[in-house]
Specification:
Largest sheet: 3 strands, antiparallel
Mean pLDDT: 74
Order of helices and strands: EHEEHEEHEEH
Low-confidence stretches: 89-109, 111-116
Strand content: 5-15%
Number of strands: 7
Strand order of the largest sheet: 5-6-7
Shape: flat
Length: 162
Amino acid sequence: MPRRCVVGGCSNTNDGGFKLHKWPKDPGIASIWTNFVQSTRTCWKPTQWSHVCSAHFEENCYYTTQLARSCGYPPRLKEHAIPTINEITSSDDTVSCIPRYSTHEAQRRGGNEATVHADNSTEMNANFTSLDVLASAAVSILNEENFYQNTIQLLAPSKSEL
């Protein structure tokens, strides 16, 4: 079974000529990747099977050597590479978001569901309580704040570089 890119609106697979990159182990970089994906899939959380395809990385995110090229090896993703390319082709592209409850809990809550559109507007379907909406907004604000803090820390020169 082919693996698939987790970015909302992207359906690239490893069978389609794209390289799929595993989630980084570095917590700071992983947080940035998570925020990137959550910009297209608001309720999404990474798993051990999560991958982002090569279509979301710029060329300067890869490295190779002359020997590797001559042997036919593809370029490798740099250790601290961050996905930056996110091109959803149509404003009709939507990503369904279902809260992470067990099937029983989801049925008890009335099968709450939201649809996130490509322009990041959210259409809430019935049965969400005001507490659900408030909790979701708080998580979004915290994720955005963490994204900017991690980006600043990543881009700031270390003491050894000064």
